[in-house]
Each structure stands twice: as structure tokens, then as C-alpha cells.
Amino acid sequence: MRKLGLVGVVAAATVFAGCGSTKTVTVSTASTTPPTSNGGGASTVAACFTAAGAAVRGPHPAGQGTAVYAVTRDSGNVGFVKAPSAAIATRLAQVFPSSGWKIEQLKNDPTAFAIYKGTLTRSDSALLSKCTGKGSTGSTSTPPSTTPPPTSNAGGASKVVSAVAACFTAAGAAVRGPHPAGQGTAVYALTRDSGNVGFVKAPSAAIAARLAQVFPSSGWKIEQLKNDPTAFAIYQSTLTSADSALLSKCTKGR
């Protein structure tokens, strides 16, 4: 069995590249004290992402700044970073690309910048512009996607993901979720052997296939399920034999 891990945060001198995984980078001016004066901007952006149906994490400390991250309905990874000064924002903007983030400077605020991974859909680009105020040409007037999240099989999907979470918990893993993951639902767990594992359930095979293309950009490895094309297991790095067996038991032995 191979392994799987999501999107990231820079806290002090650490960039969190996914749920449960970290990638460390050195920032010579990093502080362990999170800023308190700029949280309002990040909170406002977080509220905007949430209103558009995105799964939001944060605001969280990001070095000497504050960051918010979101997975959109189109499974795009977007975010926003606010710093107490333009100089600190510039230094943070040099750190995030090491974890796969692309930087979008804000024309009206040198102390902040938008972030995203991969190639955004048109609606996600418009959403990022709207929520962060980056004012990118030709996208700010385009409203975010109005396609409602899928509702069919929602109850069944929730039960399946909850059952996987219960299986991880019974094995002594530290479980987070179920959480929204784009148009699907995901659960993440840190095992007793410190392995990062998880499970993603989508309302259809097509959506599952799209989500399976998104997770690797955050360091997760994908394990397809032979008996369920609407779901897949995820893990990061190399699992121990025990963790591999646990992932198989909880995600494939349903």
C-alpha cells in the first residue's frame, strides 16, 4: 500500500504544506508571536471564502503574518496572507512558493498577498479576486460559481466517512474530520506510528476523479478503492506495515 497528506501554513519558521504534513523552511526574521493587528483582514477574507461554499482553514499564524486557506467548490486551493508591514509581506512571499503556492500581489495593499496552487478555474480566480481584492484584470467582475454543492448521496457519504473516522479512532489514531473537501468529504488521521492517512468520499465518480487530481499537489498520495469509484484513500510519505494495514482495513474493508 502506498501513502497519502493537504494545503499549508507557514507558522513561525514552518510551512504546513498539508493536513498533517510539514515542510520546514528557514526565515531569518520569523517570530513565534502571532500578530494581533492584522487578523481582521484575514478573517474578512475567510468569511468571503466561506460564503462562497469553500472549506476554510484559519486564520492561522504564518510567520509574522496571518494566513487563511480554502478549498473551493471546484477543488481549487486558494488563500490569503496578511503581514504587519510591507517588508515582512515581501519576506513571507519568498517563503510560500517553497511549498507549492503561487503568489498574487495585491495592487491596493503591499502588506498582503493572495496565494493559490495549480491552475485555477475561471470561477475560482474570480472568487480569489473578489475575496482578497487583488484586482486582477478581467476577473474581478466575474461572480464566483453559483453551482450548488451536490446533495445526492450526501447522507450516505457522511455515514461512510464517519465510519472510516470511527475505525481510525478505534485504532488509537488522532482523527480530524469529517471535513468538506471541495465537493467531497474527507477525514484525516495521525496514527500511533505518526503516519498521515485519510479518506475522501465524493458524490460521484467524476467528482472523485477530479479531487484525486487535486490532493497530490498538497503532498498526498492516492490509493484507489476497487469497490468504490466515488472514494479513495490518501496517505503521505511511506507508511509502516501497521499503518498500511490500518488504512486498508478502514477504507477498503467497509
Describe the structure in your own words.
The protein has 254 residues and is α+β, with helices and mostly antiparallel strands. It folds into two domains: 10-132; 154-252. The protein has six helices and 13 strands. It has helices spanning 39-51, 86-95, 122-132, 154-170, 205-214, 241-252; strands at 10-11, 14-18, 21-24, 55-62, 65-71, 77-82, 102-105, 112-116, 174-181, 184-190, 196-201, 221-224, 231-235. It has a five-stranded antiparallel β-sheet with strand order 4-5-6-8-7, with helices on both faces. It has a five-stranded antiparallel β-sheet with strand order 9-10-11-13-12, with helices on both faces. Strand 2 and strand 3 (21-24) form a beta hairpin. It is globular and about 55 Å long. It starts with 9 loop residues before the first strand and ends with a helix.
Instruction: Compute the number of helices.
Output: 6
Look at the structure and give the mean pLDDT. Answer: 75
Question: What is the element string, with H for helices and E for strands?
Answer: EEEHEEEHEEHHEEEHEEH
Could you list the spans in which at least 5 consecutive residues all have pLDDT below 50?
Answer: 1-40, 135-155
Strand content: 25-35%
The biggest sheet, with number of strands, parallel, antiparallel or mixed sense and barrel status, is:
5 strands, antiparallel
Structural class: alpha+beta
Give the % helix: 25-40%
> What general outline do the C-alpha atoms trace?
globular
What's the total count of β strands? Answer: 13
Strand order of the largest sheet: 4-5-6-8-7
How many structural domains in the coordinates? 2
Termini, distance in Å? 17 Å
- Rg over CA atoms: 18 Å
